[in-house]
Specification:
Elements: E1 12-14, E2 21-23, E3 26-30, H1 35-40, E4 52-55, E5 60-61, E6 67-68, E7 76-78, E8 80-86, E9 102-110, E10 112-113, H2 114-122, H3 128-131, E11 137-139, E12 143-144, H4 145-148, E13 155-160, E14 163-169, H5 177-185, E15 194-197, E16 205-207, E17 212-217, E18 221-228
Parallel strand pairs: 3-15, 5-11, 6-18
Antiparallel strand pairs: 1-2, 3-4, 7-10, 7-16, 8-9, 8-15, 9-11, 9-12, 13-14, 13-17, 17-18
Length: 231
């Protein structure tokens, strides 16, 4: 087979304690999955069916990499998230079987052009320009389930320049990881390399050039993202 032009190398993320890389197929994100965050975004936190949006696989950014302040925004936000990484394909997965499809977990930071997202929301348009822009998915090393088990509780925190901005517990997720996987798999066939960013706690806010953003999750350590000059 020949190509019209050379295909790009696949997007990958690091694996904790290994030189291996984990290929990224797709990135799914769960919207408003902590009650307090739903409230701060002006929405009712009741258990309505969860909704999803996506980021492109090549939006991934590694731990420690500088992210330039993105174009076309004046309100660039952090969002600390637990990431579940699919290792076994499945459709119509039951809640009881969901965790058997998880290869590991990572720390994520769902970077957001909040002004563009809110404008799109007000106009009833997709969120892509606010959520799916270049280098918008910071993903730390993936920790295999064989080493860390399954995470359903524990602190999730985010600091900017050492000041705590987000501080919650994974147990506060409105929709748990098994529920999210099951619901998603009834609409879309999940495959190895699919990443699911499970939602962010309350306390989202803006960053500026020169900020250092650190996300920590009990059992997974921390990741750091410096914010560089505007691109």
């Amino acid at each position: 087979m020949t190509y019209v032009f050379p295909p790009k190398d696949p997007a990958t993320v690091a694996v904790d304690g290994s030189d291996d890389r984990l290929p990224v197929r797709r990135i799914f994100c769960v919207g408003r999955n902590y009650a307090a965050h739903a409230r701060e975004m002006g929405k009712d936190p009741d258990r309505d069916p969860p909704f999803f949006f996506t980021k492109p696989a090549d939006a991934v950014v590694m731990d420690g990499e500088t992210v330039a302040y993105p174009p076309e925004t004046e309100n660039f936000h952090y969002e600390a998230e637990l990431v579940a990484v699919i290792g076994t394909a499945g459709t119509n997965i039951t809640e009881e079987d969901s965790l058997n499809h998880v290869w590991g977990y990572a720390i994520g930071n769902d970077l957001t052009r909040r002004d563009l997202q809110l404008k799109a929301r007000e106009q009833g348009r997709p969120w892509d320009w606010g959520k799916a822009f270049d280098r918008s998915a910071v993903i730390g090393p993936v920790h295999p389930v064989s080493k860390v088990g399954h995470l359903d509780k524990g602190a999730i925190t985010l600091t900017v320049n050492g000041e705590t901005k987000q501080n919650a517990d994974l147990a506060e997720l409105i929709w748990s990881v098994p529920e999210i996987i099951s619901i998603l798999s009834h609409s879309i066939a999940l495959e190895p390399g699919d990443l699911i960013m499970t939602g962010t706690p309350a306390g989202v806010g803006a960053m500026v050039e020169g900020d250092i953003c650190v996300v920590s999750i009990d059992g997974l350590g921390s990741i750091e993202t410096p914010i560089g000059p505007k691109s």
